[in-house]
Amino acid sequence: MATHRVNKSGKRAPPFTRIVNSSLQDARLSFKARGLLAYMLTKPDHFRFYLDELTKHTTEGKDSIRAALKELESFGYIKRYVIKDSRGKIMSWEIDIYEHPGSGFPVVENPTLVTNDKVLTNDKRLNKYIAFKNDDHSYIKTYLKYFSQKKNKQHMRITEEQHQMIYGQIEEIQSAGITHEEWEAEVRDHFETLPKSNNGNIIAFLHAAPRRFDVNLDIGHS
């Protein structure tokens, strides 16, 4: 029996990631969790991970990915912490990934954020307004469908920071067990009773999510 490896030297060497053996050989972790950790470590520092994004790159379902994330968190490979605005309102949940429990990355002022391989700098791009359009996220697709029907126009533009917050809060809602059918029912009710003076911004809808879905959005450590 032999191990055949990819050539990692020379001008034509493919990109590769070096990972300490102890992490991938940690017998406390399932192979699923080790594989997820290895995949996440291939991404740049400060890459932002979302459940829907992770499931696009695997045959695993969301429940399976959630279980692997919780497994990694329980053994110190992942730490989650909340980001709040100046009023103390939850904006998003951030994930720190550790190649080895107890290790970590140095604190960086104004770090470069990378989302889906697109570089966003904290001091410039995060304050830029962008179009909020349909994408592959089923919950967002549903909201924008009812928004278009009610307002007969596209959703208003949002900042990069708001875009991250929206995805983070929807992920928390999904993690709380809210199905797409339940989400659509509340979105439909929202627009059926929406006053004309209300612009229908999804951010306002998400702020009311704890009441609508009877969930606590502070669920990152539950």
Automatic annotation (TrEMBL):
SUPFAM superfamilies: Winged helix' DNA-binding domain. It comes from Paenibacillus algicola. This is Phage replication protein.
